[in-house]
Amino acid sequence: MKKKVFALLMILALSLSLLAGCGGTGEGGGSEAGTDEVVNWKLASCWTDGTWLFQVDSDFCDIVSRLTNGKFTITPYGVGQLGAATEVFDLVQSGTVEAGGDWPSYWSGKDIGFDLLATTMFNFTNWDYYVWIYEGGGLEDAYNYMFNQFGMMYFPTTTTPMESGIRSSRPINSIEDMQSMKIRFAGKIQGLVAEKLGITPVSIAANELYEALMRGTIDAAEYSGPGNDLELNFQEVTGYWLVPGWHQTSSVYGCMVNQKAYDALPEAYKQALHDAAKLSMIEKQAAYVWRDAEATTKMLEAGVETTTLPQEDMDRIYNAFVEATKACCEESENYAHVWESMMNYRKTMNDWREAQGDWDFGINFEDDSF
């Protein structure tokens, strides 16, 4: 298992935390930056109030308030309080609410280009997403490229490590085992690959997964990382866990903002949104990795058994992924545009990544020397 080293990220987090703690200076400092304007926004979240993902949205709103000395407030509302999760995009686009917390793949029905902004198969890690967004041009060339077409801007608030994998009521040791199951998958590319492999993908809302697994409505499900899976008590209704999470090697969550609402803000408040997103990204990425590590230990201690697929099956899945990706690029110019941006990032990273070998993200010791 690989681990990331977050020393640089935490240094950046400390710098932004100091900025937040003192109320900010310059463009992001609320009344100290030359504006006393009071602005109140609403944020419609795709997540249930009280869950960790909702907390990501809520903390982002709190950071904005701190950076503006309480002059710019964004009140988060859990899913169902202002509208269903499927309605959040439309609420923000129409200006009914100014902001929405989401996972971009939920909007792939509007344009499949959104899918790559949320997750990948056999591709980006959370570190890749982070560097691509802020250094590789991804924020403007992909996220705002897509959301601007719908009258919105986008502020990524966290990237997550590889998702858990597939949790099931009986062990999965092969593709053939999955072909006899109803499995919940999320994401456009994941569903296409499942269908190519003869697997039946099922779409079920996250808040309905526990009961669906308990009642046997579905046989297996992928949802999120171990921390969020543990939060929903999946270990109580699934005794088996297929690893690694090749179906989603990382995920990105963030905040959609109505373009007109953003344009109407004082410059200091615009800057506060950008700064708050960066700080949230740094803090939540580290917290997410640590939380997943702790949750993994708890699940294994609870008796959950892990399985893996043979290499020949992994090769079949990868080949299906290549076919599906090419088909998506042919189907959508936007998908092809975002994919090209990702591949341009890879061209820059590949040589250095190769030179680092296993130590790029860290290794486990193979013996008991330490």
Detailed description of the structure:
The protein has 370 residues and is of the alpha/beta class. The protein has two domains: 20-162 and 250-292, 3-Layer(aba) Sandwich (D-Maltodextrin-Binding Protein, domain 2); 169-248 and 305-332, D-Maltodextrin-Binding Protein, domain 2 (3-Layer(aba) Sandwich). 47% of the residues lie in helices and 15% in strands. The chain contains 14 helices and twelve strands. The chain has helices spanning 7-21, 52-67, 88-94, 113-118, 126-134, 138-147, 175-179, 188-196, 209-215, 226-231, 259-263, 267-301, 311-331, 333-356, and strands at 39-45, 72-77, 99-102, 119-120, 152-160, 166-168, 182-184, 200-202, 220-221, 240-242, 250-258, 305-307. The strands form two sheets. Strands 1, 2, 3, 4, 5 and 11 form a six-stranded mixed sheet that branches. Helix 8 (188-196) links the parallel strand 7 and strand 8. The protein is globular and about 60 Å long.
